[in-house]
Amino acid sequence: MLPSPLNCAFGWKVRREACVREAGSGGDGALVSSDGELLRQIAEMSPLLICYVDRDQRYRMVNRAYEGWFGVAPEELIGHHVRDVVGEQAYAPLKRPIEAALSGERITLETKLLYRKGGLRYVRVNYVPHRSDEGEILGYLALIEDLSERQRLEEIRRFLAEATAILASSLDYMDSWQRVARLATSTVADWCWIHDLAPDGTLRLVHVEHADTDMTDRARTQGDPHRARVTAPSPFHDILEGRSAGFVTQDLQSLAAGQATADAEHLAYLLSLKHRSTITVPIPGQGKIIGALTLASSEPGRFDGGDDRSITEELARRLGLAEQHARALQAEQEARLAAERATRRMSLLQHITAALANAITAEEVADVVLTHGLPAAGLRGGAVLLTAEGGAALEVLRSQGYPPGVLEAGQRVPIPVDEGGALAALAAAGSLLPLDVGARHHGYLAIGLDATRPLPAEDHQLHVAIATQCAQALERARLHQERAELHDHAQRIAAENAALYQEARESEERKDEFLAMLCHELRNPLTPMLMGLELLRRGLRNNDLDRNAAIIQRQAETIARLVEDLLDISRITRGKIELRRHPLDVASVMASAVETARPLVESRQHALTIEAPEGLQIEADWVRIEQVLTNLLNNAAKYTDPGGNIALSAARDGGNVVLSVRDTGLGIPADALPHIFEPFMQAERSLDHALGGLGIGLTLVKRLVELHGGHVEALSEGAGMGTEVRVRIPLTAAALPS
After folding, report:
1. Phi, psi at residue 701, to the nearest 5°?
2. pLDDT band at residue 105, thresholds of 50, 70 and 90?
3. pLDDT score of 662
4. CA-based angle 328:329:334, to the nearest 5?
5. Which of 37, 231, 536, 557 has its Cβ near the most Cβ atoms within 10 Å?
6. ∠ CA 452-457-463 to the nearest 5 degrees?
7. DSSP run (H or E) holding 62
């Protein structure tokens, strides 16, 4: 009886009672059984290899499964050594397990064996020792199960799982494709190629991998086994263009010979790769074929059109999904980055807008843009250039980040810009942005760009937005300046109007006062004249007649003088007065004026001193110069308290004669001094002032002196400090106005 049941691959057991050994001479008889025929039939039907081997390691019984593996009838194997049947390469890893079984151990192992005729197989081997009744080892019973297909499917399942993990772990689908190709060559194939169709229609090798890195390097340097052009269609073009669902070939030479670009040298290279089986399937994308996957093996018949094709197509599908997933994630990442950049640009523009809101001058606008806007936008510098010279030139308002001598502040550049100039280079590089608001052109914003990298469109849009904000801020600054100028102009006009109104009001007041004074001045002489005429009418004595006639004559002369002064003012104002110039002796004119004013001077008991050098002459109108001096002496006499001092002098000062009338009288307050020569102006004037006067004497003096080309000025240290009036008249006619 066998010492233990036989475990078969299908899970059922052969009971030991059913298996006996027929004793014979030497203990090496064949297996027999009461149900021997049934057991033999079962063994013959089993897909497992079932054999009995004696202790000399020679086959004594084998089932029909051996014929399928080795291509030899089972009867021909009886008596042959195990090593001779399985081959040296398969026997080497089995030698020790066989020896262990012949020493009494029950052995189970799974291993990959390369049989001499059965090829490479992954097997599970069970060795069951066979003992005699005395316990002697007579041989062993072997059950060998072929696990190659199961192992292959397990390897494929594990490969697909690892490939999926690789494809899902990277956003760079090209990198993940290369890693999957490397994984494929370490598990399910010897070679892996991945192709796509370039935009120009050329078949392009994306990746090539071999389990041996030296072979990979050789393939990458010596060529693509499937290279082709659009003008030479190939099965790969049919796959990539959607006309084929893939193909399997066991004859690489025929496939290579069909390539129009495969010359003799290239064909020799392809054959050196020793492909024995190849499968190619399309890599599906989103609505189109994006590539082709090729697996190759040196094992003949390794790939077929059944499960191998399904598995390869599944791998290709996962490669396509990885590409779609990577592109989707890349698009999502780019969209997120674009949103972040858009948010940053919006925040930057808001920051610049807030900063520009407080800039009210063009200089402040340029400072904000160059110190806040451009650096925040990642620019190394820039400049703001405004139009100048009526648009014929550009002036650098502010500059930052440029080498010395390039776009410095205050520099002017003519328009059109010279081709070799800095602005021409900036304009050619797209870094000279116009500062326009509507139809108004303010100038340009120059920005410093990195010429070593292309400028993204969104960055250009940001720069244009900064330039737009700069232009709008410059326009606001211009409007603010115009409003400020209009406001200042309005204030000046208002001030001038107020001054004119005040002047008109004061003039009106002086005119009213003048009329009142004129009435008063005319009434004063008229009263004694009327009384004198009344006395004359009543018939006076001779002596009274003479006195009354003198009074009437003096008062009439006063009226005549007042009227004459008014007429002179009117003539001068209308430009109707004429001067009769001729050489005059200054001392003689001074003496004549003193004689005219002497009655008033003496009546007020003033001391009058005269100082005039001999031979001093001027070319002037005698009557008008005498009138000037007489008015000045009369004013000095009237506005000096009785017993005062009056001095009249003349002196030469360069090309002029200076006539001076100085008194110790009332003086002129500082606030009234600038207005003393205005019409109807009197200091401390009142209607009942005993001295009288219309207040036009100094005005007449000023006008007459100016007609002679001269100048008059009044000096006084204040009220009660006296007054000095100086008159300057040119010596010769050449100095007089025409």
Report:
1. -60, -50
2. very high
3. 95
4. 100
5. 536
6. 85
7. strand 59-62
CA–CA gap between residue 69 and residue 52 (Å, rounded): 17
Calpha distance 575→573 (Å, rounded): 6
Strand partners for 423: none
Classify strands 723-730 and 656-663 as parallel, antiparallel or unpaired: antiparallel
DSSP 691: T
For the stretch 477-519, pLDDT in tens is: 888 888 988 989 999 999 988 888 888 887 777 676 666 666 6
pLDDT at 450 over 80: no
Instruction: Name which of 379, 526, 387 is nearest 466 in CA terms.
Output: 379
Q: Mark out the alpha helices in 582-621 (DSSP H runs).
A: 586-603
Give per-residue burial for 233-246: e unless 16+ CB within 10 Å, then b: ebbbbbbbeeebeb
What does the pLDDT average to over 435-461? 77
User: CA separation (Å) from 259 to 225, 227, 232, 234, 431?
Assistant: 9, 8, 8, 7, 52
* β-bridge partners, 277: 297
Secondary structure (3-state) at 384: strand
Please, what is the Cα angle at 647 between 643 and 653, to 5 degrees?
165
pLDDT one-digit tens code per residue, 515-540: 666 665 666 667 677 777 766 666 66
| pLDDT above 70: residue 342 | yes
Q: Is the pLDDT of residue 15 over 50?
A: no
Amino acid at 196: D
Q: Which amino acid is at 494?
A: A
Do residues 676 and 631 make contact, with C-beta atoms less than 8 angstroms apart? no
Give CA–CA dist 431/531, Å, rounded.
101
Which is more confidently placed, 4 or 489?
A: 489
Burial grade of 620 (CB within 10 A; 0-12, 13-18, 19 or more): buried
As a residue count, the chain comes to 738
Please indicate whether residue 161 or residue 655 has the higher confidence score (pLDDT). Answer: 655
- Which pLDDT band, with edges at 50, 70 and 90, does 451 fall under? low
Assigned token pair, 573: 């104002």
**SS3 sequence of 206-263:** EEEEECCHHHHHHHHHHCCCCCCCCCCCCHHHHHHCCCCCCEEECCHHHHHHCCCCCC
Confidence of residue 317 (pLDDT cuts 50, 70, 90): confident
Mean per-residue pLDDT for 198-202? 71
233: tokens are 């269609």
Do the beta carbons of residue 274 and residue 212 sit within 8 Å?
no
416: cis peptide before it, omega within 30°? Answer: yes
Phi, psi of 555 (to 5 degrees): -70, -35
CB atoms within 10 A of CB 218: 16
Q: Can you read off the two tokens belonging to residue 566?
A: 């008014």
207 within 8 A of 194, measured Cβ to Cβ: yes
